[in-house]
From TrEMBL:
Residues 21-89 form the UDP-3-O-[3-hydroxymyristoyl] glucosamine N-acyltransferase non-repeat region domain. Keywords: Acyltransferase, Lipid A biosynthesis, Lipid biosynthesis, Lipid metabolism, Repeat, Transferase. Belongs to the transferase hexapeptide repeat family. LpxD subfamily. Homotrimer. Catalyzes the N-acylation of UDP-3-O-acylglucosamine using 3-hydroxyacyl-ACP as the acyl donor. Is involved in the biosynthesis of lipid A, a phosphorylated glycolipid that anchors the lipopolysaccharide to the outer membrane of the cell. One of its GO terms (cellular component) is membrane. This is UDP-3-O-acylglucosamine N-acyltransferase. It comes from Constantimarinum furrinae. The active site is at 241 (proton acceptor).
Length: 341
């Protein structure tokens, strides 16, 4: 896709300073700009690149004043960073504006869907599936029986949504995600062998949830595993059966949450965090990367370490821990001197 400076200025409500007809077809960093590319200048530290960039168009703040000659066409806006983000969003919408049903696909006779559906090749819709308007289902997606999906949802290639799952409006499910696989439930018998406990619940994902690539969300043993409105999940996260994650909580990659744990709203959980099952984590909690959480956590706590400590206590303890060899040496010297006296 190609856009002229004039078209871009129209989208951003900006002003063209230079060649209004120059065209761009790609995006670039300002220091890596080339002919036919669009870039932006928002950080003053990068100002010197505007005089050497080969980008055809550069978005700048309205008050930018060039101190040397420039070859790039400028689009002047109120806020260059926000304008570039707006343009990225617009570009994504145009790029992903696919409609229609490709072939081959399988759609059950009892499945239903709304207006403006895109369904990629080799996708599957099971019995009694209900899909809203403006949904995009990319190739090789499996959607099991009795699944409901709201409006304006994107399900990227290769995602698997097991039966009975419910997905709200304005969600994004990335490639490789598995929603509704069995929870990890087994019970030992008298021989020490493990027998599977049937997992009869489902997964409920509310509105405005993003689920990163390769993340798995297990169905509940009974009831529901619930991901509440506005939650953002990174790639390769494991969420076990009957977990609940509160509104607007964000969780970074490779975190694992064991069964029946309840996490509050507006929490921030770093990468590679391990959380045991059957505990309650309050609202507004901050957990640093690679922490291990084995207890209930109160509202507004910040934790670090494994097992996790209060963030301030952890830092104070670490000061002593890293000096431990010198402390031991001093102690041994003191003890030796005491014996010699």
């Amino acid at each position: 896709m190609k856009f002229t400076a004039n078209q871009i200025a129209g989208i951003l409500n900006g002003e063209v300073d230079g060649d209004a007809d120059v065209e761009v077809s790609k995006l670039a960093k300002i220091e890596e700009g080339s002919q036919g590319s669009l870039t932006f200048l928002a950080n003053p530290k990068y100002t010197h690149f505007i005089y050497t960039t080969e980008a055809s168009i550069t978005i700048v703040d309205k008050d930018f004043i060039a101190e040397n000659n420039i070859s790039t066409t400028l689009i002047r806006v109120e806020n260059a960073y926000k304008a570039f983000s707006q343009l990225l969003e617009y570009y994504n919408q145009v790029k992903m504006n696919k409609t229609g049903i490709e072939q081959p696909v399988f759609v059950s006779d009892t499945a239903s869907y709304g207006d403006n559906l895109y369904m990629g090749a080799f996708s599957y819709l099971g019995d009694n599936v209900k899909i809203g308007d403006n949904v995009k289902i990319y190739p090789n997606v499996y959607i099991g029986d009795n699944v409901t999906i709201g409006d304006n949802v994107i399900v990227f290639a290769g995602a698997k949504i097991y039966s009975e799952s419910s997905i709200g409006n304005n969600c994004v499910i990335h490639s490789g995600v598995i929603v509704g696989a069995d929870g990890f439930g087994f019970t030992p018998n008298e021989k020490g062998e493990y027998t599977k406990v049937p997992q009869t619940g489902n997964v409920i994902i509310e509105d405005f949830v993003d689920v990163g690539a390769g993340t798995t969300i297990d169905r509940a043993t009974l009831g529901s595993t619930v991901i509440k409105r506005g939650v953002k999940l990174d790639n390769q996260i494991q969420i076990a059966h009957n977990v609940e994650i509160g509104e607007n909580t964000v969780i970074a990659a490779q975190t694992g949450i064991a069964g029946s744990t309840k996490i509050g709203k507006n929490c921030m959980i770093g990468g590679q965090v391990g959380i045991v099952g059957h505990i309650v984590i309050g609202d507004n909690v901050r957990i640093q990367a690679q922490s291990g959480i084995g207890r209930n956590v109160k509202d507004n706590e910040t934790l670090q370490g494994s097992p996790a400590l209060n963030y301030g206590d952890y830092n104070k303890s670490y000061v002593h821990f890293k000096n431990l060899p010198r402390i031991i040496e001093r102690f041994n010297t003191f003890e030796k001197n005491q014996k010699n006296e």
